[in-house]
Amino acid sequence: MSALTGTPQLVRLVLRRDRVWLPVWVLSLVGITYVSANAVVGTYDTPAEILSYARNIGSSPATIAFDGPPVALETIQGILVYETSLTVLLGVSLMAIFTVVRHTRAEEEVGRTELLASTVVGRHAATAAAMFVAVAASVLVGLGVTVSVLPHSFGTNAALLYGASVAALGTVFAAIASVAAQLLGHARTARGVSLSGLGVAFALRALGDVNDNALVWLSPMGWSQQVRATEANRWWPLLLSVVFSAGLVVLAGALTVRRDIGSGVLPDRPGPGSAGRSLSTPLGLAWRLQRGSVLAWGVALLLFGMLFGSVSKEVQNMVADNPTLAQYFERTGGNITDAYFSTALLLMGIASAGFAVGSALRLHTEEGAGRLEPVLAGAVTRTRAMLTPLLITVGGSALLVLAGGLGLGIADALVTGDTSSVLRLTGLALVHLPAVLVLAAVGVLLTGWWPGGALLAWVGMAVCFVIGWLGGLLDLPSWVTTLSPFEHVPSVPVDPVTVGPLLWLSVLAAGLTALGVIGFRRRDIG
């Protein structure tokens, strides 16, 4: 029996388990790219508008740090790549990380890998199957990106290169996740380390692009963007991605045979002999499990807000030169600056919902890993076990929306000199908290009544993102847009704050949570 025996069978198993999840990822990323490409072409349809974009956006350090090197922005093809690349590059990286960790370390953590190992399955089969599926999904996204941009006067070479750069980055982070899964003993830690690697890659790329130095070549994201599609059309930077990925896959294979199934190469740090007083309560335990997430999300939202705030001047100048954009913002009923801030606060509210949904599903994770039963074996009731961690969900979500608004206000104050915007935007950010909590409550409801479908809460968040970001471009019917709780929140600062929608959204969140608790109390654990 070889080390890869059983890989085709495991590939089929992975595809069956992810028969919904992976198509959603692939179709969402391709769909967003397709719609965004059409929107860009429709928005910048005159030479004057294209030159205005290049002058205002291409020269901004903030947008260069956020979107990458300003390549060929004097052409609509260059603008198209500039506007769509960040979303699809980050998305394909996240898809690859989650797929590999889900089918390697997470499977070992719950004991299914050990069960498979008792059959005719090679030691490297699980990692190989996860890598194969993640890379194949990344290639499908890349092909979809190619097809999405081809109709817009892209040459075949440039379109294929753009798609290949996307697939290459997904492959790199699939390989990074495979190494993290071998080194670390818990899926959450492996995901966290892989996501930290993505953050480091983004930071190195941003610093390298802004300062125009060699730091960009230390980043896998930089390699994908240095192909300079539509301008130089360089294929050779992708060789770096291929060689780096191959090296990491070989390393992952070498690490696999140096550890026992169920454990990582790096041993878990032994804890103290007895728990502190804070861990003797469900709230203390919930905080201990989620404090890292709160901190990481808080820093990310603060930086996210600062990036939005730092380009407010450029957006005003660009809108002034573009009648299409001006018409879009005029539909909001407010001035350009307030309309821009309204969009920024909405996107940061949806981003905060990412933490809220993950936090609300934490109980589902603990149940699946078998760690919930010992908690319930003590003096903790099911109601308390479910509701107490939600205090962290609510408090953490409030901190995150405040962090996003604070970052937006600070950056705008630094750009314009108007310090009053700091407190104003920070306070207005809280308007989105009830909508965030509704999405978290959906996770609680699913955990209580249908734990097998609890992860569908993430689909709800994705739907809200598409409606909030692309709803106007897609011309969705009103009954679809009303499905998003964020559509019922006042569009501050364009619209005044009204208590009614915020109150009934809060009541809805509380009601869904109560229903989830009822279901959790009635069903079997596990």
UniProtKB/TrEMBL annotation:
Sequence intervals crossing the membrane: 20-41, 79-101, 121-147, 159-180, 235-257, 294-312, 390-410, 422-446, 453-474, 502-520
Keywords: Membrane, Transmembrane, Transmembrane helix
Presence of the UniProt keyword Transmembrane helix in the record: yes
Coiled-coil regions, chain positions: none
Protein known as: ABC transporter permease
